[in-house]
Amino acid sequence: MDSRKILLMIFDGLGDRPLNELGHKTPLEATPKPNLDWFASNGVNGLVDPIAPGVVAGSDTSHLALFGYDPKEVYTGRGPFEAAGVGIELEPGDIAFRGNFASADEDHRLTDRRAGRIREGTEDLAKALDGLKLGRIKTIVRAGTDHRIAVVLRGRGLSPEVTDTDPHEAGETILESEARKPEAKATAKAVNAFTKQAYKVLKDHPVNRARVAKGEPPANTVVLRGAGVYPELVPITERLHLKAVGIAGVALIRGMFRTVGMDVLEVPGATGGLDTDMTAKADAALGALRKYDLVVLHVKAPDLCGHDGNASEKIRVIERLDAMMGGIKARLPGEIVIAITADHSTPVALKEHSGDPVPLTIFGEGVRVDDVLNFDERSMAHGALGRICGQDVMNLLLNASNRAEKYGA
Amino acid sequence: MDSRKILLMIFDGLGDRPLNELGHKTPLEATPKPNLDWFASNGVNGLVDPIAPGVVAGSDTSHLALFGYDPKEVYTGRGPFEAAGVGIELEPGDIAFRGNFASADEDHRLTDRRAGRIREGTEDLAKALDGLKLGRIKTIVRAGTDHRIAVVLRGRGLSPEVTDTDPHEAGETILESEARKPEAKATAKAVNAFTKQAYKVLKDHPVNRARVAKGEPPANTVVLRGAGVYPELVPITERLHLKAVGIAGVALIRGMFRTVGMDVLEVPGATGGLDTDMTAKADAALGALRKYDLVVLHVKAPDLCGHDGNASEKIRVIERLDAMMGGIKARLPGEIVIAITADHSTPVALKEHSGDPVPLTIFGEGVRVDDVLNFDERSMAHGALGRICGQDVMNLLLNASNRAEKYGA
Questions:
Q1: Stretch B331-357: mean pLDDT, rounded?
Q2: Interchain pair B57, A408: CB under 8 A
Q3: Is A239 found in the same domain as A211?
Q4: Could you tell me if residue A296 is left (phi over 0), alpha (psi between -120 and 50 degrees) or otherwise beta?
Q5: Residue A334 within a domain
Q6: Which pTM does this prediction carry?
Q7: Is there a single domain that holds both residue A225 and residue A238?
Q8: Residues of B in contact with A405 (CB under 8 A)
Q9: Does B386 touch chain A (CB under 8 A)?
């Protein structure tokens, strides 16, 4: 039997918990979603613990697991994936941070942790910081979405074992980075030098003068977090013999794709926000299946509703996801395996990630079918996949697509 | 409570996927099998991933797991189990191969990879090769079923890190064995010397002269694959304190039994083929329970139907397996635990092993009972055992038979 193409849909933060306002149902349980239910009814289903039962996964660690890597082996911090996501070509030994443009007074006390959620001019500001020398260490700086920024330190003998400078609260002073291990002292020193130099460079930058003139908070400082060393992963092309491409609006996920050796497809209208064009993404995914073995389509929207604590918005997003799946169902290529899952739960009531498992449907001609009829948390508990771990998912997809290699004889 | 005897039934390749020709049911789901269903209804059930979810198991790695060993620790290749299966007493350091008698021309090009599926005279041919010296390395050669052969290299400093000589296709030239690691160079050289010497010894052997005279392809060469080093396993008698015996028609599985320290029971009529005498095997198994703590009964037939892509034959085999279980049910010894499972799935549509999980029923007086009514893939998904790994099975059997040792106090 021939091998199949694989379409993996990852709906960020889709899993949830029961809400009183929804009659003690989760958003998935409360939303009519005929197309998602059709895939569940005609596929095999289960609940996935992205890392392990009860463990709260980040989007980064979860994606690593879903792509078949052991996060405990390869994950050091989120910085490198953000940096890869904004297009920085990382090298072994690089230490990467993610961070924010922020507003601070002369004493480095934060007045706005996101510089008024600055949207314009951040590329100019990043350019002003890019290439800054901190002794023998070189910095690489790129603007991300809105106020977000990626900062990479490049040089000899750097360590990711340094603490964040981001105090996470307005009114607090920017933190001094500290070495968690002795070998990280030089790195912490460089980080603190960066904080000071960045302020000097940014405070009188034309972009900020214009902002102050308009009464907007200046993006006159940078706070950093998530230090990580560039993970040298065996690319998915080699490990699983899959030519793979990913579609995502957000930089972190694009960085995940690049880091595991996947191509990244640019889709106009894919924003990583609630305004993302899901139809355009689905069209692009179906098109990419002609050229690639594995296409991953990531949608950030449900996670945003979870973080906002907005149940009705999460329901609207689920309706839109269902419509997108309806479009895929209507144009279903023959020799294909489709998997629908999430990277983690972001319960509306919690406004944060939780360690609750997420639904998984695997659908395709010849794939076993179980008795599950609905794509939701409660129904999935009866699926034939049982309760599995994120790291199992890629093996299950290789098997369903007749691409798995035999272990033994 | 007293400990029980254990009867473990392993139906090779029994698991399957839904087939359109069976109304989107698997062969197990499509076959009336009142006795298998009776055991499922009166036992506890689940789905077993022989190695891990989605991972495609060989019969060798799967049996190791079912017997409680970690294949990742002890498995190096299939050769040693084949060699043990045909009665070669392996020693630590031995490198064992499985292979075929084949037909080749003078340039070592294969004209028939199975020498016309030769059945007679193979023992004489193997004897002619047995004891061949390759420098300081000694060879041990035994004929297996039909065209199959086991070859062992014995000597100092040998390594299993050598490639196969079997090109797997008629018309191709026999491959030169190559060293995968520097320390395997001498072994690869010995393998290539064996290929040449075997041809010299075999080409004018009386058995082959007679074959050529009758117009049959001569068994004038040997192709080798699956190099492995003899695994030094702690025998099951010591690890689990079980006096154990196995019944199987095929050499590989007999070799698995011997390697893990089980006795092998010879049952007339147990062929490893579709013509195997299941009643005789069941009789022998029930008899052996008087003397042994654990009796393993292996039936190869369902796997053969899967590899042949023959759904109706697989259904007939399932009917015969059910009749065999009916015979066991009719003469059920009192103090017994019976487990019914498979080593892996061999879907008819795939004609190969797949990574789909296999059914498991554990039955016995006092063993918990769940709501599963049918012994098939879909029903097992609702079993109380859930979805477990092959390596869990022996612990579950030790527990069900009141033989498990306490971990802790």
A1: 96
A2: yes
A3: no
A4: beta
A5: yes
A6: 0.88
A7: no
A8: 56
A9: yes
Q: Taking 70 as the threshold, does the pLDDT of residue B1 lie above it?
A: no
Do B88 and B203 sit in the same domain of this protein?
yes
Q: Does residue A203 surpass a pLDDT of 90?
A: yes
* A191 and A238 inside one domain: no
CB pairs under 8 A between A and B: 102
Residue A405 inside a domain? The answer is: no
CATH number of the domain encompassing residue A43: 3.40.720.10
Q: Among B229, B261, B291, where does a domain finish?
A: B229
Residue A405 is nearest to which of B26, B56, B357, comparing CB atoms? B56
Residue A1 pLDDT more than 80? no
The partner residue sitting opposite B387, judged by closest CB among A367, A386, A395, is A386
What single DSSP character describes residue B19?
A: B
- Convert the pLDDT of each residue in B130-168 to its tens digit: 999 999 999 999 998 889 999 999 999 999 999 999 998
Rounded (to 5) percent helix, strand, coil in chain A: 35, 20, 45
How far is the C-alpha of B377 from the C-alpha of B339, rounded, in Å?
Answer: 16
CB-CB neighbors (< 8 A) of A368 in chain B: 17-18, 26, 356, 377-378
B226 at interface of A, judged by CB pairs closer than 8 A: yes
Tens of pLDDT along A94-116?
999 999 999 999 899 999 999 99
Mutate to test the interface with B, among A368, A372, A403 (most CBs of B within 10 A): A368
Judged against a pLDDT cut of 80, whether residue B58 lies above it is answered with yes
| A404–B71 CB contact, under 8 Å | no
Q: What is the DSSP string of A93-152?
A: T-EEEEEEEEEE-TT-BEEETTTTT--SSHHHHHHHHTT-EETTEEEEEEE-STTEEEEE
The Cα of B100 is separated from the nearest Cα of chain A by a number of Å equal to 15
Report the number of distinct structural domains present in chain B: 2
Tokens of B68: 């409680």
Using CB atoms, pick whichever of B47, B351, B354 lies closest to residue A384: B47
Last residue within a domain, chosen from B229, B264, B285: B229
Q: Please check whether residue A261 lies inside any domain of the structure.
A: yes
pLDDT tens track for A239-288: 999 999 999 998 889 999 999 999 999 999 998 899 999 999 999 999 99
The pLDDT of residue B170 is: 87
Same domain, A249 and A379: yes
Q: How far is B78 from chain A (nearest CA, A)?
A: 6
Interface of B with A in 352-381 (CB under 8 A): 352-357, 377-378, 380-381
Give the mean pLDDT of chain B.
95
Complex ipTM value? 0.85
* pLDDT tier for residue A227 given thresholds of 50, 70 and 90: very high
- Interchain contact A189–B (C-beta under 8 A): no
The reply to whether residue B55 touches residue A395, judged by beta carbons under 8 angstroms, is: yes
Residue A77 has pLDDT above 80, yes or no: yes
Domain that includes residue A340, residue range: 5-75+233-400
- Distance between CA atoms of residues A276 and A309, nearest Å: 19
Q: Looking at the partner chain, which of A371, A407, A409 has a beta carbon nearest the beta carbon of B51?
A: A407
Q: Is the pLDDT of residue B367 over 90?
A: yes
pLDDT score for B232: 82
Q: Quick one: which H or E segment has residue A29?
A: helix A27-30
H/E stretch holding B54 reads: none
* Helix/strand/coil percent split, chain B, to 5: 35, 20, 45
Residue predicted with more confidence, B232 or B104: B104
- Is A392's CB within 8 Å of B71's CB? no
**Tokens 């993006």 -> residue:** A219
Residues A174, A52 share a domain: no
A330 & A208 share domain: no
Asked if residue A373 and residue A301 are part of one domain, the reply reads yes
Question: What is the per-residue burial (b if ≥16 Cβ within 10 Å, else e) of B286-309?
Answer: bebbeebbbbbbbbbbbbbbbeeb
Nearest CA in chain B to A383: B381
Most confident of the ranges A81-90, B108-117, B227-236: B108-117
Picking from A63, A47, A9, A3, the residue whose alpha carbon sits closest to that of residue A326 is A9
Is A144's pLDDT higher than 80? yes
* Residue A182 contacts B, CB cutoff 8 Å: no
Report if residue B407 sits inside a domain: no
